[in-house]
Predict the structure.
Amino acid sequence: MFTTRPTLQGTFGMVSSTHWLASQSAMAVLEDGGNAYDAAVAGAFVLHVVEPHLNGPAGEVPILLAPAGGEVRVLCGQGVAPAGATIEHYRALGLDLVPGTGPLAAAVPGAFDAWMLLLRDHGTKSLADVLKYAIGYAEDGHACVENVGATVETVRELFETEWTTSADVYLPDGKSPRPGELFRNPALAATWQRLLAEVAGAGDREAQIEAAREVWRSGFIAEALVRQAGRPTMDTSGERHTGTLTAADLASWSASYEAPATYDWNGWTLCKAGPWSQGPVLLQQLALLPPELPAYGSADYVHLLIEGCKLAMADREAWYGDADAVPLDDLLSADYNAARRRLIDGKASHELRPGSPGGRDPRLSGHARVVAPAEPGFDPMGAGEPTVARLTADGGTRGDTCHLDVVDRWGNMIAATPSGGWLQSNPVVPELGFPLGTRLQMTWLEPGLPNSLAPGRRPRTTLTPSIALRDGVPVLAFGTPGGDQQDQWQLHFFLAVATRAKARGGLDLQGAIDAPNWHNDSFPGSFYPRGMRPGSVTVESRMDEAVVEELRRRGHDVTVGDAWSEGRLCAVARDPEAGILSAAANPRGMQGYAVGR
């Protein structure tokens, strides 16, 4: 089968990420004797530098890790709503949705502490060893990918008139970053250099990492973040608001470990973050599949996956969140999904149809219950991350998030989806060189819902990395940017891998990534302004024309996008019997890369 690139194979180590500099930096750590977790931390901090329009240190990250010989764990780097982030406070400001930008949308930053916890507990390298790559690219410069400058141009007026600290970094001399020219962020480099200097005398490796966590929580970094949250900032509401983040919020939160949500399917076990993420959507889509699948890529196959996704996403809207115990066992049970499967017929559904697991009544936001055609000119900003993403006429998007997978020669494996803290989310904190995040925009300003805004609760994120086990052994780590599309694209990728596995030569990772993909927007988007397009499907133009026409005949509102516009997947794998490691990366967007040997 022809693929855009080979599926890499080797025995030493493999990395796949959404930017080649992050992949190669992580590989350099493996070459220097580090393990998969050291490599992932180094790659993640490089992603903050080279994909600042897609993630930052004050964003968030869910991490799935499978230590060699150990159990899969979730490391939650999703911060909670600050103590002052109440529905009453936002309603008193005249808001009915959390703004998509600005400090009112900022949760407690989670990414930095999660990476530090991973490095402390599972890594072997010092903090200086893993930060040196990011510091080098921030201080000495790197050649930006085109989308950095393109993103800056979309917010140029805002930067020049309101967010002037962002203009200082991203519009030096009035020019946005350009491909082929070095771009520097000396403030960010200085932040990490000062951090290293402050923790140098703390003691051994672990003590220095702990000291760094304290600097983030209560030292000069915390002080600068709180100052920024208190500055009146123009946001998507059209007004200037201050945020709710305080020193106490930062000091009291830390990343944490938990067990994954899992589902067994045809000899595979899929591991995801819990229902504070959208991860179980992938699991429920598998549970909704019939025992026998239609022919891969056929109209019956695509229709089945689209309609199953709509049902799983409707359940996400009604049940997922951090407010109460989510009835996940019922949502993934055979009886429940057999009943839900009977709702899928030969026609496209245009309704939002949550179920009643265990006889419970579903609870939906009033915003979600309004099922109506989009207003003229409406852009479903849930089409991708970050919140400046627009669904264009051809179905393409601008902006996503990041992803990183690593497997090392010892069998350690990790999948992580860093996001938030984008350059277009909040003004750059001038003392630090990066902005606050905006993840609270995913909560509802209505009481009594699983995902209602409430102090101390995590917003239900879209970030959803994956690890798959075969016969109980971790063999595959994968994920993608893409907001609400993530578990849509990942389902098709996983089924392509699992149902078309080569009899010889391992898994066809690159072929599964390259295969034409699609997504639908038939449910409320997770990003401001939370729009939806009932019955919509966006496909790549490489999809068979006969399949497209049959989907339309069945009532799907099909948009045909660019040939290479759907999916941003990364993946690494290991064959424990053969001792072979493999990796592949997304060719779309011309920046994702896999490396290894």
